[in-house]
Amino acid sequence: MTDSMWTTKRGSLGERWRDRPRRVGRAALGWAVAQGAFALACGPTGALPSGDDSRLTRWLSWYVTVVSVPTVGAVVYALRNPGRPAVRRLLWAVCGLSALSAFSLLMDVVGLLFGQGVDSTPRAVLHALGLVGVVLLAATARAHSSTGCPRCGAPHTARTAARPAPSAASRRVHAFAWAGSLAFAPYAWMKTTWVTGGTFAGITDDDVLAGARRNGASDLWLTLESWGVDGTALLAALGVFLLFGLIRPWGQVFPRWTLLLSGRRVPRWLPLAPALIGVGTLLPYGVVGVGYVSLATAGVLPVRRGDFPTADDTLLVAWIGLTAFAVYGVALAVAARSYWFRTRPVCPGTMGSGADGPAFRPLNAC
Fold this sequence. Notes:
Layout: H1 13-18, H2 21-42, H3 54-80, H4 85-101, H5 105-113, H6 121-143, H7 171-182, H8 185-195, H9 205-214, H10 219-226, H11 231-247, H12 269-297, H13 311-343
Helix pairs in contact: 2-3, 2-6, 3-4, 3-6, 4-6, 7-11, 7-13, 8-13, 11-12, 11-13, 12-13
């Protein structure tokens, strides 16, 4: 069952770009050259300052500089050889490489959101350019994909493709979502202990506030902390809301309180954009962090105590936070994949059942 309001007259941005592979290809080529030049100025040449942590910026700059070479080559090859299967494989490969350079972009956004700034402006710019590259390279890959429907052979746009009705994800995806949400329970318990005046990992709420001031936290962050509201706890709550919006039907249609938008279809990019940014940041950050903490717990790597009285206290807090990031990152990736497949336009011939055609069942396809 479909709704006429779920289609547009001109089609989505992605569909319009799919009809113009050379235009999106040129945009991707311009981005690749610009990103490579900026990375070259940040790291190998040293023309731009690296920020507080120059070593990390140099490593990222070298990575982006090296990756920009095959990226430019892949885009040029795509422009000269449109429609070849090898083109799509190359573009998706360099798209994945670009996604790695966007690592920790979410941390930069959080720092800017609460007025704390970023550790390194050049590195933050490289993270943002990496995300732009993911969008452009994915659009270029899709532009060079086959436009014919495998069922009816006709090319479908937003005007001709059917949109599935709002649906829930499978039980397996729900299990991942609950696991990702419950992973924040120890984190919430730790924050609640501090807010209520208790002591956790050898420090109290006053120690947390003092440490935030020393680290240059913004007035907004300090005000929220003084009210007993932790900024990261708020972001965790928003993350759980996003997670369940991806797996429940209400995440696909605007609710009644949105007034003019009530009942209209939520654009697919609206929940998928923050979900993909979260996956690209939290999943590798959590997985790599858990690996580091594991080695530190085993005594293989050193532990920096930071604001905590002992190394064991530091490891305890690190285990709680990084495990939550890793589990939530996996759950977010599974939920985003489910949302992607459940909401994508399909051939109208696959909708309905019986005399109207074969049943369309995308709910548990992923």
